[in-house]
Amino acid sequence: MEGAAEWAAFYRANIDIFVRDYLQLDFLKWFQYMLLAMMNDSTNFVWIAARGMGKSFLIAIFACVRCILYPGTKVILTAGKRSQSINVLEKIQTELIPKSITLKAEIDMRASKFSGQDAKICFKNGSYIKVVTAADSARSNRANILIVDEFRMIKKDIVDTVLRKFLTSRRMPPYKDLTEAERSAEYAKEPNMTEYLSSAYYKDHWSYAKTVDSFKSMLSEKSSSFVCSLPYQLSIKEGLLFPEDIQDEMMESDFNEIKFSMELGAMFWGGEDGAFFDFGSVSKNRKIPYPMLPGRLASKLGNSKKVAIPKKQNGEKRILSIDVALMSSKKNNNDASALFINQMIPNKVGRYVNNIVYTDCFEGMVTQDQALLVRRLFDEYQCDYLVLDCQGVGMGIADLLIRDMVDPETGELYPAINYCNNKEMADRCTVPGAEKVIYAIKASAQFNSDCAVLLREGFRSGKIRLLDTELDGEDYMSSLPGWGSLNPQEHLDLQMPYINTTLLINELVNLQHDETNGKVKIFEKSNMRKDRFSSLSYNYYVALEIERKTMRRNNFGGNDVLSNFVIKPPRSANRNSPLSSLGRGWDRGRYY
Question: Which of 4-18, 26-40, 252-266 has the lowest mean pLDDT?
Answer without folding.
Answer: 252-266
